[in-house]
Backbone:
């Protein structure tokens, strides 16, 4: 850092401490007798949420609204798990923006430190670099130095010596160390106390995860050198982060026998925000829309997707469509779902046409986590789009139930026309195998997506779901499933036993389409 940068960083640090001191001033706190004070402290030692709200108003109070954002149930469960297990190996896999560092690096260590018999003596905070680790550790250092409520209840924390950036000891003898990824932790101790709380915070990054050997070496370092810093394995050994890649340190540690894993996604199993006191469903939905599905799955749902593990980006071809009356056959196929929550399957409707020489054109694509009524409306959009050109409408037969039929009937009465939709009764078999079997068609350029619809949301969902499609993946695949079913129906009606084999240039074959 330049002298100017150092000066600015110091000014920001001093301002941060001043803000903490101001937010936690005890002048306005209700006067207590010694008995009342001891009773309050005893209650805060038991009640993690109350502990956080009392000592850290500068973290939990929204400055715009003045409202206190309460700890989520998963925050409280994690704190209790850590407090009640002196010897713990755990991976806390939490979504971005869900206060991983704040709780694991500040709140929980200070809760442990504040117990009647302190449950923390020597803490080591590890991150991807020493500078990052020092920065993270400085947050708890600032609290110990400037948090007036904590100091008033538990005594002055700053010691006259041993109080430096990245390595300090409190007056009561609790020691704190920062270490970067791969940096030697051997011999870490304060007096006779070896580390009893080691937290590895966001040790992964995209660059590391692209190098399998570096990930493997780091996992080895974590299990050997870092874990060895504990007293014979005694203590709390914690890794926290969001799962940005399958090839990652977090994945490797969470898969290790004996490691407890607690995973928290932006949405819970019921499709509701996991931290409902902070995030509304609308806010998460807007973030998802802005980030795109692959990024959202990676950052917010701990579901990293390897792009193109089956379908490559080079397999996806856009081009011009033919006039609708020039197709040998048109099929509109719908793969529905009943739920419209954020974690439910997508409803997907694909309008696909087959040309006289056996190419499949995806003319229209609708795909969204939406209502049955909206899905029915797609069919009327398509009906209006095709005009008088014949279209075969299909939907999975197991969804042809009263609810869905009622919606089609109701919409038909309003529009003055019923969609002639038929239930697809075939035994489809394994979904993964069916969709994977389409890949050669895409690779050989036999499936063309409508270039005029490239920026339409449904076509974007189809492209994303194709690229995310992988065996064992939890990513949605309803749009590719609708396309596969439409192509199957077109093959059946056009009596094609095999797809055409085209040996010459796709560009030459499609010169009128590009």
Residues:
């Amino acid at each position: 850092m330049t002298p100017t940068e150092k000066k600015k960083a110091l000014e920001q640090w001093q301002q941060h401490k001043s803000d903490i001191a101001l937010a936690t001033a005890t002048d306005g706190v209700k006067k207590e007798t010694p008995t009342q004070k001891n009773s309050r402290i005893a209650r805060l030692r038991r009640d993690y949420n109350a502990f956080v709200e009392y000592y850290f108003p500068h973290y939990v109070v929204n400055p715009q609204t003045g409202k206190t954002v309460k700890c989520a149930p998963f925050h409280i469960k994690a704190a209790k798990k850590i407090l009640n297990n002196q010897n713990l190996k755990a991976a806390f896999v939490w979504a971005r923006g869900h206060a991983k560092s704040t709780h694991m690096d500040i709140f929980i260590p200070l809760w442990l430190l504040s117990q009647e018999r302190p449950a923390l003596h020597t803490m080591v905070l590890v991150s991807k670099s020493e500078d990052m680790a020092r920065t993270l550790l400085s947050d708890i250092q600032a609290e110990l130095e400037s948090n007036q409520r904590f100091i008033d209840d538990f005594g002055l924390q700053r010691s006259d010596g041993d109080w430096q950036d990245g390595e300090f000891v409190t007056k009561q003898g609790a020691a704190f160390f920062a270490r970067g990824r791969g940096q030697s932790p051997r011999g870490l101790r304060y007096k006779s106390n070896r580390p009893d709380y080691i937290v590895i915070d966001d040790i992964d990054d995209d660059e590391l995860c692209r190098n399998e050997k570096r990930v493997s070496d780091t996992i080895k370092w974590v299990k050997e050198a870092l874990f060895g810093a504990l007293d014979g394995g005694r203590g709390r050994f914690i890794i926290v982060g969001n799962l940005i890649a399958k090839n990652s340190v977090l994945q490797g540690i969470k898969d290790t026998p004996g490691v407890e894993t607690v995973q928290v996604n932006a949405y819970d199993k019921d499709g509701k925000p996991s931290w409902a006191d902070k995030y509304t469903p609308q806010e998460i939905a807007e973030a998802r829309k802005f980030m795109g599905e692959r990024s959202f799955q990676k950052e917010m749902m701990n579901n990293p997707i390897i792009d193109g593990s089956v379908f490559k980006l080079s397999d996806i071809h856009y081009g011009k469509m033919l006039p609708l009356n020039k197709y040998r056959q048109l099929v509109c196929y719908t793969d529905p779902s009943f739920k419209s929550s954020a974690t439910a399957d997508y409803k997907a409707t694909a309008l696909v046409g087959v040309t006289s020489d056996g190419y499949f054109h995806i003319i229209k694509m609708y795909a969204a986590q939406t209502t049955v009524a909206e899905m029915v409306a797609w069919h009327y959009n398509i009906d209006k789009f095709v005009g008088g050109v014949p279209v075969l409408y299909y939907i999975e037969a197991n969804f042809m139930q009263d609810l869905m039929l009622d919606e089609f009937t109701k919409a038909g009465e309003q529009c003055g026309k019923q969609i002639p939709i038929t239930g697809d009764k075939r035994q489809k078999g394994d979904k993964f195998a069916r969709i994977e079997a389409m890949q050669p068609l895409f690779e050989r350029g036999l499936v063309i997506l409508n270039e005029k619809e490239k920026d339409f949301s449904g076509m974007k969902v189809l492209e994303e779901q194709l690229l995310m499609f992988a065996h064992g993946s939890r990513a949605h695949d309803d749009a590719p499933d609708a396309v596969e079913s439409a192509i199957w129906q077109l093959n059946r009606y056009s009596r094609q036993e095999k797809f055409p084999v085209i040996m010459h240039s796709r560009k030459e074959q499609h010169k009128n389409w590009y």
